[in-house]
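Need tokens for this chain, all 605 residues.
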Amino acid sequence: MATAYERYNLHTTPEKFFIEACDEGANAVLAIDRVSNEMTLTSKKDIPASAVTRPICGIMGTIRLVAGMYLIVITRKKNVGSLLGHAVWKAVDFDIISYKKTILHLSEIQSQENKTFLSMLNNVLTTDGFYFCTDYDLTHTLQRLANTSPDFQEMSLFERADQRFLWNANLLRELVAEPELHRFALPVVHGFIVMKPCRINGKIFEWILISRRSCFRAGVRYYVRGIDSEGHAANFVETEQIVVYEGAKASFVQTRGSMPFYWSQRPNLKYKPKPIISKTTSHLDGFQRHFDSQLLIYGKQTVLNLVNQKGSEKPLEQAFAKMVSTMNNGMLNYIAFDFHKECSHMRWDRLQILVDAVAETQDEYSYFMVNLDGKVLVQQKGVFRSNCMDCLDRTNVIQSLLARRSLQSQLQRMGVLNVGQRLEEQADFEKIYKNAWADNANACAVQYAGTGALKTDFTRTGKRTHWGLLMDGWNSVIRYYKNNFSDGFRQDSIDLFLGNFAIDESDSPGPLRVQKDWKFLTLPIVMLVAFSMCIVCLLMAAYTDGSQATLILLGLCLLSGDTWTETLAYVMFWGACSAITATIILFNGQDFVDAPKLVHKEKMD
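Here are the structure tokens for all 605 residues:
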């Protein structure tokens, strides 16, 4: 396998960037012309002595904005651990460097747009969870890597990467156009990785959890639901649990993803917008494509649908069940489990009902394991595809329980656990295990919903707590605000980063210049003024004997008397104004939320 370079120096001159590979024995330098944008391979002797030099950790890629091309580099990394002897890194800091030495060629409007696009890129880059490895393929599971051809093994990291999880594929397009530059192309995944050395019965093993977030149909909670025409599901995440002991390796893979048909749930200022199933699109084509792909990659599928079987979620569950029954070919199994109903009143022990119900299927699917000599002992023949509405909180809880059951079997087979021992009894390991899965939940939730996950108190402690309920309430409030007032910008940021939107070089008005409807500013101001006047009038009633305070409030409320009748009339008037305005705002809720501007919203339904 052609590995990527590990260490770099960036040399900058007014005309060119020189990215020098600093690995032992390397003499390769990537030269980028800042005027023609041409990329060529040169040697260290071509680097001018006058160049400004600094170390970098890798190349994220390049992107065109209003001002021209930009180079994105990784400036700081953090070691996560070692995966089968290969160092895994988290990208911590980035720098976005303009090819152009100045932006004086831009108009004021263009300059402002360019600044907005830069802030969008920073919004994505500062979302925690970018990982890379220079000599190992993080985009594939152990089982997929074990079943590859010799030709595959000879490919560069970029060429062999699973495109579903290659988050900087769009940024690397210019670089990978030249095969000789592939060693500078660093594949980066987005999601969560944790690696922990653990000890049970005096035996030390490595426990690893990797969640790979798909870059197909990527986005934020309410603006990206269901599937697209290619069958890609929103918030699709492949989670692999790996254990390594004395050279033997085992892994267990699960997936999560939005219910794979055409449905949407647009923010509209309501706490929980009503989900809408499309009536104008044939669902079965996209549904079939989704599961054809899943069956090809993972084998048999058991769908664990954890949504409510009443209220607004019920039609979604019914539609999913109906489509599975239509397609069913013996490879697809569907189980509906009303998580909230079953676990109501803090009865979280009832989750064992679902675990027991799928135990036989889990044993049939098994897991992947190779011994010290590299001989494959068993392969995983199917996966559990879990989902709730967001594929976050409920989903993560169930996945952690199934992963523990698999790990129990793996550790017994490896000789780490003695016969009759249970993982739940290993206090030190259980603490590591539960916290890692809770951290996984938080990472996936922040990337999709904008806040940490709910229900992590159960994942961390094994029981539901009142403090956990309080924290869930706080996170729900933050989610409400972000989903309605900042997620449009986040969605635009992701679409720009992934190449779903390309900058138009023409001078025509861009999508960022679209002006909000008059209602957007006028009605909230009217409501705020009316509500404030209502409060002022109420306060006046408390100051009927305080002449000075009354005079001050008198001017604000324009009152000429101090009787309760007059005060009540004013309170009712301003209260009615604020209530009517609030009702109009809620009725036109979608006009007041922060909606995406770059990709037309119909394309995301």
